[in-house]
Structures are given as structure tokens and as C-alpha cells.
Amino acid sequence: METYNNILCISGSELVQIIGSKNTYDSVRRNIVKVHGENAIVKRACYGNSALIRFDALPPKYKELVLNQTTFKQPTEEVKSFIDQVEQDPEALEFYSHYELPDGRILGEFAPQTVREYCQNAAVLNTIRTIYNKAIAARNSLSGGKPAGFWDNALSTINSCREELGHTLPSNSNRLRIKYQEYCDKGYEALVSGKFGNNNSRKVTSEMERLLLSLYTMPNKPFGSDVHHLYALFMKGQISVACSATGEMFSPEDFTRNGHPAEITARTVWNYLNNPKSRAIVDARRSGSFQFNAMHRPHHHRKLPVFSFSKISMDDRDLPRHMKDGKRVKAYYAYDVASGCVVGRAYSRNKDEVLFVDCMKDIFRTIDRHGFKMPMEVEVENHLVNKFFDDLALMFPFLRICNPGNSQEKHAEHLNRAKKYGVEKKTQNGIGRWYARHEAYRVDTAKVNDEFVEKTFTYERLVADDIAACNEFNNQLHPNQKKYPGKTRWQVLCENMNPNLREVSKAMVYRSIGERTATSIVRNQYVTVQETKFQLPDPEVMAKLQPGNTSVQAYYLPDTEGIVSEVYLYQGSQFICKAQPIVKYSTAKAEQTADDVEAYTAQAKYVAKFDRMVKEAKKELHSPVIIDSETVEQIGSATPDIVEQKPSIDEPTFDDLMDGYDDYAARAFNQL
Questions:
Q1: Cβ(452)–Cβ(434) under 8 Å?
Q2: Which tens digit of pLDDT belongs to each residue from 26-79?
Q3: Taking the domains of the chain in order of start, what are their residue ranges?
Q4: How far is the C-alpha of 537 from the C-alpha of 462, rounded, in Å?
Q5: Domain 312-495, what fold?
């Protein structure tokens, strides 16, 4: 065994001899790395040198074998004395850890092992300098001059403790002396290799790298070997290379080394093309935005909302299975992000704005059916939705428009995938692709006219299957069972509503996404929509109409069965009121129910309100008499006669006679 950086080690070759099998050694080495990490291999194997493995990382069985069959390398007294004199230099550690390379990188941040190597080299050279100065002083005290054979002895000593100290100083006495002199003249910087960030020391310069990357990003997507071949032709003058954007011509004279054309191997070209930084740059040109974003572009790390309806995410999708005509059903979904529930869905043969509007309608049908409040935020894409941005901004407190081409940004994309490869894969046949790599996702196909044809279904069957899948998806256990133990997605949706939600403004929502019908208010009471009469809430609403105009626009949203429960009336951009269906009642006393009595009472109240409105308004009117101006002058100049006033008796008017009519009518009705 031997020590390396003050760590007791054994070489891999010796361990193979002790174990007796290379395969067993490989298994032991893998197990050591798995248990103790990469640090268990103190020094990796390289050409001509075996790996060094920490002795204390060996399993007990092999430790005993090693102790029984190996001995320690005993260093000489001279080497021991030198090792004892070597001391770590804190200033060297500070210098190399914060050393800034020409390319702007910090040495200690990306090459900590190199920092340790330089510190060991500095510590050895410091010790050599101390010993050398003592030798010079001793020589001067005797006869003067330099100590003979010093550098040969120094080389022999440091070579003997190279592994123990972990230094990488030259193994030639002349080169060691030169390196020592550079260290004395320049200090710590003399030990920094020129390979770090030095463009002059590079086999491929920055300009040459730019040329190689430019050739690699040509529209035909050449291979790395093609780039090497093109570079060779360019250097021979057989082809010219120019920048199509600027017209700049590249010149072979700019790519020389020591006055000769710079030659590089195909392997060197491959290395530069596949450098992680260069790979990201060239793929930005060679690949589409979708592939580039998925492979290289950094992404945001987010956490899901805590409350339901804090955010809903919407996205379109083609159902995976084909229709009879070979096309796919277009679907649009709305998910609550916190629970993952499908809260809105729509289907169509065409992907257009109508599909999005139908999905919005289904969201509010769900809200109305379950008594939910208005979601706080909606997340949509630019596609199909851009003409509705203003309406969405009015309906929802927050509107999130996702960046185009960045599918991973939308929460709905991830939920679509979870639904497809979860409940759909389990309940539907034919979910997958004929070219899928995994056999479980590969569907059966038939090859017809050199094309792969999958099984087809009717539009109605595909829609029915997906509706069933949505319902099952909502009733599955929530994926975060640690947070919601035993709860389904739908239970999480209903039980964790955001406490700050506001009531739905149906007048605004229906005007944006609802159905629209032109109609008129009849007899100050009702409008007709879908062959149903809807009554105004109060006769006073008529005062909001424009003069001489009883025409209005009715906005409404039918439920899943096509029933309209309420309409919202507008005249132009002015909201008038909400109208609800008039419930008819039976006039036959023998057939009346409690609902008939309630319907009669509601209609009677409306008529009474109208009569009261007219009656009270009439009281405000005067009974004017028109008199010509001459008569007014005569009346003004005449002496009035004193006439004894007698109390007058007013004749009853028609309204007075009709006052209370409703009460008598009600009494008569009840006595039938």
C-alpha cells in the first residue's frame, strides 16, 4: 500500500492480483463507488498508471486480504525529512481559488481539483526554496558558489514523494529548475497553465470555432464529418465561404498556426460542435423552437396553487384516435390547476374560435350547476383566443397569456398528458402511436398503399368515450395523496375553494360568450326567447329604454339539455335587466297545485306593481285649462265678486272605482 495526499491507498492492479479476478475487482470497485461515492477512487487510472483506491473504502473481507498480502512502501529518511518540511500555503489557496481566467471564469468555481494541484505545487516549491536558500547560505559560509548537484537531488526527492504529496511539478531537472525560477519571478501565477482561457494556446481559435459552427448550422443540417470535410476544402481554396447575412468572406489566411494552415482532425471538430455551450447555440439554428425549448432552454420551477379556482388553464387537443374520414376530433379543455379537475370541455370537427367559446360556455355551466363562484385567473394560449382577450380581461380578475410554442408553460398541457396516459390508456383501446418506441404504447396498424392505417371510430363514439374519461379522471384520487389523503380530484376542487372568489357577473359573461337573440318587450311585461316568455323583474325597468324603442338583445346560456333558465337584456351597450321565465298556472280550481298558486301570485304582483306605478305617476299630473291672453287680461282687471264657498263633492273617477279590483278578483277566484 501507499499514501497519496495523506490518504492510505492501494493500486487497482495490485488489488486485482490479490482478489484474483478482474471481473470480481470491477464488481468490488462499482460497489465501493456506490457506497462511498466517487471520492473512494482517489486517483483514476490513466495510460500506464493504475487507479488508486482508498483502503478504508474496501469491504472488510478484502481489507483483510490486503493486510495479509501487502506491505507498505517505506520512504527513505531523506524523503521523509522533505515531506515533514512541506507546509500548506494559505495565501496560495486564496490566490488560486479566486483567480480569474482570461475568459472571465473563476478557477476555483469550475476546477477545484486544479486549485488543489497548484497549491501542492506551490507548497513543494516553497520547501525547495527554503532548502535551496539554506544550501546557498551554507555554501557561502565555506567557499561561496552554488551547491553542486542540487537540482538532481531535488528532482530525485520530489519524484519519490510525488504520489504522497500529489504535486505535478516537472520530472526533468532542467525543466524543474526553470519552473522554480519562473515561480520565484512571477509568484503564484507562474503555475497557472496557459490552457485555461488562453485563445493563443487553443488548437481551434475563437474565429475558427465560429467558422465551424457556422458551417454546422447550414439549412441542410450537415454531419460533423461533413463540416470537417468542408473546412479542409476551404483551407485548400477549393471552396469559398461567405456570410449570407453580411456578405463577409472568410479567408484561409486568417486560419494559420506558425505561418502554416491550421489543420484539425475530425475528432476535434466533433468536440467543438458538441461542447455544451456550442451545442445550445447551433441547435437554436438547426432545430425548431419546440425542440430547442425542450432540450436546451432553461425553464421556470413553479408550485401549484393551494386553492381551487385560483387558476384555470385551457388548451386544445386532438383526440388520439381517428374518425372514419381519417381526421381527429378536436377537443378543448379547461382544468382547475389546484385539483386537476376538468371543469369545461368542448368538441368539434374543426379547430376554430367556436370550439373555444363552447368550452367557455361549459365552464360556466359547471359553475352554475354546482353554485361555484368566479375563478380568479384564466390561462390561455394565443392561438384561437386572441380575439377574445378583451372579453376575458373583463370577466376574470387575472388573465395569463402563455408564450407561443412553449407548451410546457401551460398547466393544461401536463394535465392533458396525465389524462391521456392515465385514464384513457386504461379505458380505451388504440391509445398510442404505431411508431412508439415502447411496445405498450404501440397500436395495431395495417399498411395500405405504403401508409400505416389505424382503426377508426365514429365522431359520436369518440366524444362519448372522452366525456366518460373526463368524468373518471375527475373522480380518481388526487395525485398528491400526502396532502389530500383519500380525496379525489373533484373532492379537492369542492372543498378547497379560494375564499376570495367573487360572484359570477352573468350579465357580463353571457354578453361575451352566450347566445344572442333580438326581441322586443311586449305590454311592458315580457320578451320571448326560444319560444319561452321571460318576465321583467319590475315595470320600472321600462324607464331605461330609449324613447320609442322597445327592441332589446337577449343574451343567455342554455344548459346541457338546451333549457334556458334566464336571459339578460341589453339595448345597445346598456344593460337593462335580467328576465326569468313566466310560469303559467291552471285556471281550474280542481287541478291547482301549490306551484299554480305561487305562479298566480307572482303574476298578480307584477300586474299590481304596474298599476301602482301608473296610478302614482298619474297623481303627479296636473289638469291644465288653456286660456287665451285677452281673457287673462280681463280676468286680471275685473273686480272679483265675493262668493260664499261651499264644500265640493268630487265625483269618483274610473281609477277610484277600479281601486281594489284585484282584491275582489282574488276573492272571486278563491270562491270558484
A1: yes
A2: 888 888 877 777 777 888 777 667 788 888 888 888 877 777 665 544 456 667
A3: 2-64, 78-191, 202-295, 312-495, 514-582
A4: 44
A5: Nucleotidyltransferase; domain 5 (3.30.420)
